[in-house]
Amino acid sequence: AALEALEALLALHPDCQSLILEYGERARPRRPRDESLRYWREHLEGADPVLLESLAEELRFDPGARAEAARLLHRVLRLRPSSGMAHHVLADLEVAQAGDLETAVEQFRFAVCNSTADEHFAEAYFHHARLLGVDVEALALLERRVEEAGHRSIGPARTLVAAYTDQGRPERGVALLESLADLRPDDGHLAI
Predict the structure, then answer these.
(1) C-alpha to C-alpha distance for 188 and 100, rounded to whole angstroms
(2) Which of 37, 87, 92, 163 could serve as 111's disulfide partner, Cβ 3.0–4.6 Å?
(3) 160 CB contacts (<8 Å, ≥6 apart)?
(4) Any alpha helices (H) in 48-169, and if so which ranges?
(5) Average pLDDT over residues 127-151
(6) How far apart are the first and last CA of the chain?
(7) Measured between alpha carbons, how far is 6 from 27 in angstroms, rounded to an integer?
(8) Helix (H, G, I), strand (E, B) or coil at 188
């Protein structure tokens, strides 16, 4: 029903970028990949960077289309240099092509810094930084995220706890959760 309602709205407002994006994202799991690709490509002219990211996201899983995905993401970054999604997907492409892991880790770091609420980006950054042997720097960034989030969000703390556990230091994660629980005794997410 929601997809049909979006179709009706899109018929009334065919140039509305937010409707184009919403429809494409909701229809993606319900139709064949080639139809999704055709849909995104039909809406590239004057597209919002988020639409370009959606097409790049669709293309990145096809080894033959990764160069096109990278071009789209570089275009996004020219239009919106602070796009965490574009940096993250570029990093994923670099890793998928067995490219330069240092470059990928930098892209993952940019993604985290530009999308502070996306825990997936933070986890990917730490994981790849650890592979590269620069997990101390990555851990410092994760710790800063917890400080900056303060009482507003538990997400950064959960990511940091997972990083401590990956490093074989789960006691630091437990200590962090206990200190947060003391600060926020009524927070059910911190109940141990």
Answers:
(1) 42
(2) 87
(3) 139, 142, 143, 145, 146, 173, 176
(4) 49-59, 66-79, 84-96, 101-114, 119-132, 135-149, 155-166
(5) 92
(6) 41
(7) 10
(8) helix
What average pLDDT does range 1-21 have in this prediction?
Answer: 84
Per-residue pLDDT reduced to its tens digit, 42-82: 887 777 888 899 889 888 888 889 999 999 999 999 999 99
CB 93 within 8 A of CB 107: no
Separation of CA 171 from chain center: 28
Residue 192 has pLDDT above 60, yes or no: no
State the pLDDT at residue 39: 82
Q: Are 71 and 60 in contact, with CB atoms under 8 Å apart? A: no
Place of tokens 């994202």: 25
Quick one: which of 61, 54, 70 has its CA closest to 17?
54
Give me the residue label for tokens 């410092």: 140
pTM: 0.83
Tokens matching residue 163: 């990083």
Can you tell me which residue has the tokens 């998928």?
Answer: 96
Residue that the structure tokens 């002219």 belong to: 45
- Write out the two tokens for 154: 């538990």
Residues 6+ apart with CB under 8 A from 109: 125, 129, 138, 141
